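Final report, Chapter 2: Outcomes

The project's central promise was a pipeline that accepts a single protein chain and returns its three-dimensional structure in a standardized token representation, suitable for archiving and comparison. That pipeline is now operational. To close this chapter, we reproduce one record exactly as it appears in the project archive, with the input sequence first and the structure output second.
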Amino acid sequence: MRKFLKWLLGKPISWLAEKVSSSPNEKDVFHSLGRLLRRIHSGKKNKGLIKLLDINHDQIIIFSDQHKGARDNADDFKSAEQNYLTALQYYHDKKFQFISLGDCEELWKNTPQKVMANNSKCFAAEKKFEEDNHYYRIFGNHDLEWKYKLQQNIFLKPVFGNDVKVHEGLLFKTGYNNETYFIFLAHGHQGDLRSDGNPFSAWVVANIWTPIQRYLQIKINTPATSFALTDKHNIMMHDWSSTQKNLIFISGHTHKPVFASLDHIDRLTKELQQAQKSKDEKAITSINAELEKRKAEYAGKEQVKTKAKPCYFNSGCCCFDDGDITGIEIADGFIRLIKWNEEHGESKRVVLEESELSYVFERLK
């Protein structure tokens, strides 16, 4: 029966999904992010919290897009689990606050029951942060079901306790040089009509559309599947954040890390320009080799930036094919893009990019 229904309904359902959300629309992205930020500013706690941040003492780790699944062949997180567990232990030992920035679980492919039953080690590691009052959960489009109290009560509270809360966004407020600055966090699917429309359409997606898609095993493209789409979407989120005063925006969703508004290719290109200017032949050869190596990974990239307002950061994901995970750290007065990967059988933390937050704040002007 499933095969017949998939044959009968697969194309119409895919066509409909593509019509409403296959590509990010700048107007929708700008509207939805602006609306969410305004609602949090106005005190709507069901949308998100406002927290004070001491940039010199507070420590935060942001991971997104784990897509924890059912530990089967369709589970993109399975190979990254060990790096993720080691990272969480490291950050818990150092008393970091942990923000899980959406698509924490893969609920398009799997039922909540399966995901909760097959990821007990990860949930136990995350629960330690909740017990220390250091845990923030944001929902994304692939775990939109967590938006609703019923699903939270049935599946999340028995694991994390009755105090666990799930928000759409989070806003940190801090001061520097006698001015107020904000760090705004959201998953980044805002503007996707399939999961960010009016409350009724969001409910339909979570409670009707997703179970149908799950049952029929219909795969719908998301920004993570096409670099042209991820690049376009990252640029839109940068462009929106560049219109905001004294604000840094941190998202996930696209699975492509961005640091201070530049992705890896942008940064390599900037380094190449500097090497060419100084006539450093060794550096030129090395950077060109790295660019060639990344050509397939970044196929479809339409715009290379070497200068941009450093207002946008993306945490990447915790489900890369090679088991690596990336995230954003805020600690010691710095903001860092970090990677955890396996070296000689051990998970290691690597700082890919870093900058003093004060330096970033000064360049938001």
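Archive annotation: The longest helix spans residues 2-21.
This record, like all others produced under the grant, will remain available to the consortium after the project formally closes.
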